[in-house]
Amino acid sequence: MPLRLDQMLRQYAAVPLALQGALADVFDVPALDVSVADGDVRMGVAGTGRSGRLLPVSPNRFVSPDVDGLQAEFQRDAWGDVAGLVLKLGDARAYYLQP
User: Fold this and answer.
1) DSSP conformation class of 2
2) CA–CA dist 34, 46 (Å, integer)
3) How distant is the alpha carbon of residue 8 from its chain centre?
4) What does the pLDDT read at residue 49?
5) 3-class state of residue 45 by DSSP
6) At CB < 8 A and 24+ separation, what contacts does 82-91 make?
7) Over the stretch 43-62, which tens digit does the pLDDT of each residue have?
8) Nearest 5 degrees, angle CA 41-CA 63-CA 22?
9) Which of 1, 32, 71, 94 is the most exposed place for a label (fewest CB within 10 A)?
């Protein structure tokens, strides 16, 4: 099932800061742009026009070559559409959902 992207994901603010861990302090990004172009998955801060490439680890997990240890795990709904994104850096998490 193909990964369907080209959308903006907004940070899920209902997750308590204690559960988000370190990302709550260092990764304060309210919205992300995620897209697929020429076979590359790209992610960046919404509205900046800049993005970085994500390298695949599995069908729904990717790593960032620019940020050591940053993983992006896409959550899909029953139809295969991306419903959310979890960014992981060590034990810390940041959660993003479609608006």
Assistant:
1) P
2) 9
3) 10
4) 81
5) strand
6) 82/3, 82/4, 82/5, 82/7, 82/9, 82/34, 84/9, 84/12, 85/9, 85/32, 85/34, 87/23, 87/27, 89/22, 89/23, 89/26, 89/27, 90/21, 90/22, 91/21, 91/22
7) 887 888 888 889 999 988 99
8) 120
9) 1
